[in-house]
Design a protein that fits this description.
198 residues, TIM Barrel, 8 helices, globular
Length: 198
């Protein structure tokens, strides 16, 4: 079973005081059912390193774990080109990073982020997201083998909120979320983390 990941992308937001308050609240609420990650602006990396020291967040021992985002525009979706676009984005990533497969594991996380749903308040329905996630996993099986594909975690990103997280996480191939604006509000982000329990 793939463990869920909930990653908060702060983009260019934050302050020393706000970061400390947000991280302390989130750390107390992180369930065992998922891993957490925070992507903060570069000026706060040192602060976050200190705040997260000793926790299961922000980095893997011995290196970083990239989260590679792929997704289509609204025009590409409406013209029926979603799978072609996803394949054209995914295939070069796999080609460049396939050398990192060890013991049937690939230390890369993928995120399906439909461009039309980023910061717009729109989100793919759970069924739409699952359809693309399933395609990504099947494509990974073709490129790297079934066992590697089954181990790869694929996140959904695109206006994820506490109100839709549970339904998204219930889908077979959605292994967590890449969260934007909701990651800056502790109650919202904690709600998304707790949706991994259901």
């Amino acid at each position: 079973m793939r463990k869920k990941i909930v990653a908060g992308n702060w983009k260019m937001n934050g302050s020393l005081a706000a970061n400390k308050a947000l991280v302390s609240e989130i750390l107390t609420a992180l369930p065992d059912s998922c891993e957490g990650a925070v992507f903060c602006p570069a000026p706060y990396l040192s602060q976050l390193q200190g705040l997260l020291a000793g926790s299961a967040w922000s980095s893997l021992v011995g290196g970083l774990c990239p989260i590679v985002c792929i997704g289509e525009t609204l025009a590409e979706r409406e013209s029926g080109r979603t799978f072609d676009v996803i394949a054209s984005q995914l295939d070069p990533v796999v080609e460049k990073l396939s050398a990192f497969v060890r013991d049937e594991q690939w230390p890369v996380v993928l995120a399906y982020e439909p461009v039309w749903a980023i910061g717009t308040g729109k989100t793919a329905s759970p069924e739409q997201a699952q359809e693309v996630h399933q395609f990504i996993r099947e494509r990974m099986a073709t490129l790297l083998g079934q066992q590697v594909a089954q181990g790869v975690r694929i996140l959904y990103g695109g206006s994820v909120k506490s109100s839709n997280a549970q339904e998204l996480f219930a889908q077979n191939d959605i292994d967590g979320a890449l969260v934007g604006g909701a990651a800056l509000i502790s109650t919202d982000f904690i709600g998304i983390l707790q949706a991994t329990l259901r």
